[in-house]
Predict the structure of CBS domain-containing protein.
Amino acid sequence: MGVDRAEDRSRSPRKNGAAELPVDAELLDGHSAKEIFEDRSARVGFTYDDLICLPGQINFGVADVTLESHFTKKIKLKTPIVSSPMDTVTESRMAIGMALEGGVGVIHTNMTIEEQAEEVSKVKKYKSGFITDPICIKPTMTLHDLDRLAETCGFTGFPVTEDGRMGSKLLGLVTRRDTDFVKARKETSVSQIMTKAAGLGDFLARFRAAAASRPPDGALAA
């Protein structure tokens, strides 16, 4: 009886009358990747514990290998790494980490729609190239208030303008590099530690050079 149940639970691609490997096949004690992943009659998913990959000889180069997979019917991933939409797994920080590796993080739904939108917004604004609607701050803002804003937004770099609005005169840029080692955060204003606009020329030149040589990121969130 136990054998029957084990056979019923089997995920072997040879189940249901699938063709056996020839006697002289290289993998006499297992299945080829083609058998496992291209057998349309199997219709099963596999976990890490279900498969053991055995080393063998190949007759092709690494450049011929592609891991491109469908995430949806219309979206393909060249790096098929996806994090689970669980409340203990994927929020903005995980989605950002997945995106930086070329994968996708699926934000979980165990929160309000507004909170979900906020998490996705944090991911989309993280190092996403040229941001057309940056969050600007006033030069009079204290580092204490800046910390709270950074915690809400999920990033730590902000342009500093005269009135804290987009379109007004740019005074400088404040990043984590400027704020990390300042202890008196309630007494220190952004204008005291920011990188002034006059000194941003070299920074922007280095940024543009890095951006030109950087490959495009994968999708950031779903």
Remarks:
- The chain has eight helices and seven strands.
- The beta strands are 69-70, 76-77, 82-83, 104-105, 158-161, 170-174, 195-196.
- Residues 6 and 167 are 68 Å apart (CA to CA).
- The radius of gyration is 26 Å.
